[in-house]
Write a structure and sequence with these properties.
The strands form 4 sheets. The chain has a 6-stranded parallel β-sheet, sandwiched between helices. Strands 6-8-12 form a 3-stranded parallel β-sheet. With 317 residues, the chain is an alpha/beta fold. α5 (87-106) packs parallel to α6 and α9 (249-257) packs across α12 (300-315). It folds into 2 domains: 4-171 and 214-241, 3-Layer(aba) Sandwich (Rossmann fold); 175-213 and 245-283 and 297-315, UDP-galactose 4-epimerase, domain 1. Helices cover 43% and strands 16% of the residues. It binds nicotinamide-adenine-dinucleotide (NAD). Residues 5-232 form the NAD-dependent epimerase/dehydratase domain.
Length: 317
């Protein structure tokens, strides 16, 4: 029987690129992209598309049934900075969308689930350097609390009901195809747009704020790799630490100045600084490397070159 892959939240920063990557690999007919809004043209052309509210169980179930979906990538969520403004709405979206999919998997209506967690599961009391897979986790943001709770439920559904759910704690993700969705690491994308457009950037995080980051192609590679891995290789059913590079705003500035020497940065930290201050600076991802062969390709210099090369046309007449 022909089965399909459903991406929920397909129009976001990750969903857009994930949809296109899965479509390239499995063919357009095999992929069903969904979101509460329409996405960019390239993504919309690469898959079936359905408007779908991830909190509406009946609507989710209907699409799963109609398209014979056996695998779900649940990317819809409210991200860290926005969630602080709308705590109840963030909790509702981030938790209920997950329960719907876990319950469909428990009832054997879908076979395999990907659900992303985040470095936001860690908090001020977590060791900030080389943060271990298993450690103190006391997140202090609505978003972090929702991700940590989600991780516990994923593990629970796997242990109690045999649900094949797989998860990664993404660091801050850098990409040029779509705008970032309102997270604390958004500066690391915005800075390239501003560098090309205005030659300067006012950063909402202060100098010295080191955070774990990753180029989108690496994140997509990891997402597909963990879903491809044999079931026995997945030993962690909460969520895997995942890392590539760690840097602060001044490091991005220096790497941009190699291409745009006149580029300048100023610092005006806002409420997002207090979120960043509770997050790790670097992550120990040895379990992901050992269990399912994860390795990253992009360092900061490659990220900067790729971002500038791909965005330049947008800002030059
Ligand atoms: N981007 C990052 O740096 C990052 C880092 C760590 C974890 N994550 C996680 O990865 C996932 C995807 O992140 P992203 O950056 O692509 O986010 P995003 O905000 O760019 O995209 C989320 C998408 O979900 C959609 N959405 C919102 N409410 C919905 C609903 N009720 N029903 C259906 N769709 C809805 C939005 O329209 C949007 O297109 C999230 O779970 C996020 O927490 C992202």
């Amino acid at each position: 029987m022909k089965s399909r892959i459903l991406i929920i939240g397909a129009c976001g920063q990750i969903g857009t690129e994930l949809t296109m990557a899965l479509s390239k690999r499995f063919g357009k007919d095999k992929i069903v992209a969904s979101d509460i809004r329409e996405g960019n043209e390239m993504m919309m052309k690469s898959a079936h598309f359905e408007l779908l509210d991830a909190t509406d169980l009946e609507a989710v179930e209907d699409i799963v049934f109609r398209y014979k979906v056996d695998t779900v990538y649940l990317m819809a969520a409210m991200l860290s900075a926005i969630a602080e403004r709308f705590p109840a709405k963030a909790w509702d979206l981030n938790m209920n969308s997950l329960f719907h999919i876990l319950n469909l998997a428990k009832d054997k209506k879908v076979k395999k689930v990907f659900w992303p967690s985040s470095i936001a599961v860690f908090g001020e009391t977590t060791p900030a350097q080389n943060t271990p897979q298993t450690t103190v986790m006391e997140p202090s943001t609505v978003y972090g609390i929702s991700k940590q709770t989600g991780e516990r439920w994923c593990e629970y559904y796997h242990t109690k009901y045999g649900v094949d759910v797989r998860s990664i704690r993404y660091p801050g993700l850098i990409s040029y195809t779509t705008e970032p969705g309102g997270g604390t690491t958004d500066y690391a994308v915005d800075i390239y747009h501003r560098a090309l457009k205005h030659g300067q950037y006012r950063c909402f995080l202060k100098e010295g704020t080191v955070l774990p980051m990753m180029y989108m192609d690496d994140a997509i590679k990891a997402t597909i790799a963990i879903m491809d891995a044999p079931i026995d290789a997945i030993k962690i059913r909460s969520s895997y630490n995942l890392a590539a590079v760690s840097y602060a705003p001044e490091d991005v500035t220096t790497s941009i100045q190699k291409h745009i020497p006149e580029f300048e940065i100023t610092y005006e930290p806002d409420f997002r600084q207090s979120i960043a201050d509770t997050w790790p600076q670097s992550i120990d991802d040895s379990e992901a490397r050992n269990d399912w062969g994860w390795s990253h390709s992009f360092g900061l210099e490659e990220i900067t070159k790729t971002m500038l090369d791909n965005l330049r046309d947008r800002y030059t007449e």
